[in-house]
Amino acid sequence: MHPILREILQSVHALDPFPEVASKLLELMMQDDIDPQEVIEVVRTDGGVTAKVLQLANSSQEGARIAIASLDGAKRLGTRRLINLILTTCAESFYAGMGSASLRSSRSLWEESVTNALACRIVAKLQGETDPELAYTVGLLQNIGHVVLDRFLARERDEILGRVDLGMSTIDAEREVLGIDHADVASRLVRKWQFPAILVDTIRHHHAPGRGAVDPTLCAAANLGEGMTWYVLGEDGIASLAYGVSGQALPMTKLTERQFPQIRDELLRELELQRELISSTREEAA
Fold first, then answer.
1. Which segment, 96-105, 152-161, 209-218, is predicted with the most confidence on average?
2. What's the pTM value of the predicted model, to 2 decimals?
3. Which of 19, 58, 175, 278 has its CA at a distance of 20 to 30 angstroms from the CA of residue 6?
4. Residues spanned by the domain of 192
5. Residue 243 predicted with pLDDT over 70
């Protein structure tokens, strides 16, 4: 085994676990009929998570007249949406504590992940055959492998960037330098946390949706969502779609390029509405 690959895998096992509440909630999310009271009972004993979830729940209600004052009140957002608010709270804490300034700060990683989650949800809604809230969860976690690479492999990340500057794709550059790519790192990480198989598989194959073994269409939605994230966040605008969009993504989702501006506009509206999700880490770090 290549020494760098061994170091990466050791780093995965050395990372602190994702909050246990997340694993319990993901088990519930995989059920067809979710009891919202079970969700509330899982998180109720954690006062910090409860407070943050209520903050995010209220910020996500555009034009709402009645504030959400309790987890019971938050049920009106929908059980799957509530679960994702809780997962987002858990992910925020993880990103805030694990990122480094070697390539991108923890804040940048967090902003990209929230944007990606929202983009994947929009793509799934438009596609119509994929659970939008499951797509949101995938989008939130699919690039968590960058946390490992940024924290432990600063020198190697510079080598990867050098190859990308010369025209190599990010995935190919990672494989050449590391013997592994960030999607594989992320899938190993969520497998270690005992997340559901559909998340492990989708995260692993979000850059090659045709290889997805559990739900290839969800892989395609995750791939296209990431492309739309860079459409919005990238400096090159529409050219940024080339970052990670597989040629399989559009036919698998049955979407067309003509819908890109529609997805972009809805994502920009969502980002404004959900600005609390993105700004919180920035404010805490200031």
1. 209-218
2. 0.83
3. 19
4. 3-285
5. no
